[in-house]
Design brief:
Beta-ketoacyl-ACP reductase; oxidoreductase; Rossmann fold; binds nicotinamide-adenine-dinucleotide; 252 residues; 7-stranded parallel β-sheet; KR_dom; alpha/beta
Length: 252
């Protein structure tokens, strides 16, 4: 077991990739605070974890608001007294052509995906610095943070920002033994991608862009996150790991 007694905070843990990471980390011995929106889903994730014999708490909180962010960190500290690993996974995506993106669309993506990542990162990093034992921070970016997909300018910009935020944090936090890396998944089967998966023509067309000819599963991302959280990646920081079935390396 690779995360025995580590305290982990995962945002956006009510479903999808966040839930898979929370459950996988717990199976490796971590105590997990599952934070985000959707009380029922958060409690369900926490219940999966306690069924595994590990410890979990569910915290309803919106990453856009500093008061909520402070509360999720304070609740975690009250329960276990420390935070060793942070996974900033909460995120949203609603497509729109560039010429039709409203100011509200723009703010919604940037506030949740980028500002939320900043707020949670800064508060948790301050605690890690105080604790003095280093830590690992994992930012959920996307292949859209490295390459532009049509109809997603706001999402692409938010994920590109996350990659540079991760690198900037990695540089400044390295002296404290805190590593900061980002994950760049390709197409993963979750509620977020369900509309495309449920459309047989669209998904057949989309699969042509993926050399491995399948979509990814949340567990594929959880495995990469586990590597980033554990000491096995102890000399890796500021890195963006792509997990996309080969999509980004293919020209045509
Ligand atoms: N599914 C994919 O193909 C894919 C690919 C690349 C990156 N990602 C990223 O992975 C992350 C998880 O995506 P997913 O596919 O599991 O999506 P999902 O919609 O299933 O889960 C998103 C999670 O974020 C939470 N969330 C949304 N807004 C929030 C807020 N304001 N505050 C707190 N929590 C909030 C939701 O409640 C949910 O738990 C996102 O950051 C997404 O951009 C997903």
């Amino acid at each position: 077991m690779r995360l025995v007694d580590k305290v982990v905070l995962v945002t956006g843990g009510s479903q999808g990739i966040g839930r898979a990471i929370a459950v996988r980390f717990a199976a490796e011995g971590a105590k997990v605070a599952v934070a985000g929106l959707g009380k029922e889903g958060l409690e369900e994730t926490a219940a999966y974890i306690t069924d595994l014999g590990s410890q979990a708490i569910a915290i309803e909180a919106d990453v856009r608001y500093r008061a909520d962010v402070d509360r999720m960190v304070d609740d975690t500290l009250r329960e276990w007294g420390r935070i060793d690993v942070l996974v900033n996974n909460a995120g949203v995506n609603r497509t729109a052509p560039f010429l039709e993106i409203t100011e509200e669309d723009w703010d919604w993506h940037l506030d949740i995906n980028l500002k939320g990542t900043f707020l949670v990162s800064q508060r948790a990093a301050k605690e890690m610095v105080k604790q003095g034992n280093g830590g690992s921070i994992i930012q959920m970016s996307s292949v859209n943070g490295l390459s532009a997909e049509a109809d997603q300018a706001h999402y692409n910009a938010s994920k590109g920002g996350i990659n540079l935020l991760a690198m900037s944090m990695a540089v400044e936090l390295a002296p404290h033994g805190i590593r900061v890396n980002s994950l760049c998944p390709g197409f993963i089967e979750t509620q977020l991608t369900k509309p495309l998966i449920d459309n047989p023509t669209a998904i057949a067309e989309y699969l042509k862009t993926i050399p491995m000819k399948r979509v990814g599963q949340p567990e594929d991302i959880a495995s990469a996150a586990l590597f980033m959280a554990s000491d096995e990646s102890r000399y890796m920081t500021g890195h963006c790991m792509v997990i996309d079935g080969g999509q980004l390396i293919k020209l045509s």
